[in-house]
Write a structure and sequence with these properties.
about 350 residues
Amino acid sequence: MRILILISALFLASCGVDSTNNTSTEVTVSLGQSGITTGAIGKAGVIPANIQSVSLIAINATGTTIAGPVLANRPNFTLKISVPNGNQIRFRILAFDQKGAKGTVLYKALSRPVDLKGKPVTLAVKMSLSIAVTANATAITPGTTIDLYGTVSGNAPTSTSPLLWSASNSAGLGTPSTNGGHITWTAPATTGTYTITAKIDPNKNPDQDPNIVGTIKITVSSAVDTTPPVFTAGALTDIYIEATGVTTPYTFITPVATDASGIASVVVDNTGPFPIGLTVVTWTATDNAGNTSTLTQNVVVQDTTAPILTLNGINPYTLVTGQTYNDAGAIFTDAVDGT
C-alpha cells in the first residue's frame, strides 16, 4: 500500500467564479472531495481514520508565510484561505492525529508553485508521510558520538517506507538499524553546525515526495555545555483536585525551564489519571546538550463530596392504624464508591 494521499485544491476567485480579483484569491482545499485518487491510502475520496485535523498556509517564493494558518477538524476537512495575488505561491498542508492541529504530524505536503491572479485555479497536492528526527544531544564536542532516531508519521519506519540517512559530514554516520529507525553519528574535528537528514527510501516507496524529509542540526564546538537546565519555579505548587471516580484525570500546565543552550523538552513521568490520595510526579527538563534536571510536584486527589441517598418506594408513606410497614430501603450513589 502506498503511503500517500492526493488532495485536490480548488482555487475560487473571491469575487466569483467568473470574475477576477486584483488583490487576492480565495483558496478552498477539501480533503474529502473526489480528487483524492486511488492508489493512495484507502479508496478515492476516503480520508485515513487517524487524521483528525489539517492546517494550511500559503508561502511566497522566499518561503515567507503570506496567509494562514487556517484549520479544519474532522469530519469537515474543508479549508478556505484568502491569499494575496502573486507568482510562485506554494501551499503547505499538515495533517494531525488530534483536533485543533495538535499532536503528531502524520502527513504533510508542499504544493508546486502556482501564480495567483484572482481567477479560478485547480491544483493537485500530494500528501506524503511526515518524518521527524531527534537526537540524544544537539550540542557536542569534536569526536563525540550521538544517537539519532527517525520516525515516520509518529511511528517506527517500516520495510515499505524505510529511512535513508545523510549528513553534512556523512563520514561520521554509523550503520542504521533495520528500516533506519536509529543511527549514530560521530562529530568531526572541525567545529560548526551540521545538518543530518532522514528521508524515505524512494526505491521502497516511490510515491513519497522526495522533498519531504526530516532534519536536525547538530552544533559541534570545543566548549561543551555541562550545566543542567533550571526550572523557573524553585518549587511547584501542590495540586488539589476533587475526585470524579476511582481515578481522576488532570491536565497539567508544563513548568518553564531555561538553559543557555536551549530547552529540548520538559516532560512529566505520570500524566494520570490519579487515585485517591497523594501521588508525586516528577518533571524532567532536558537541554539541547543532553543535560537534565528534575522537579517534583504533589498531586492530591480528595473526595469531599458526600454521597447522594435516595429512598426506595413512596415518600412520604402513609400507614393506616394497625398496618404493617415494610421498609423498602434506600440506595446511595457516589462518584468514588459507586452505588
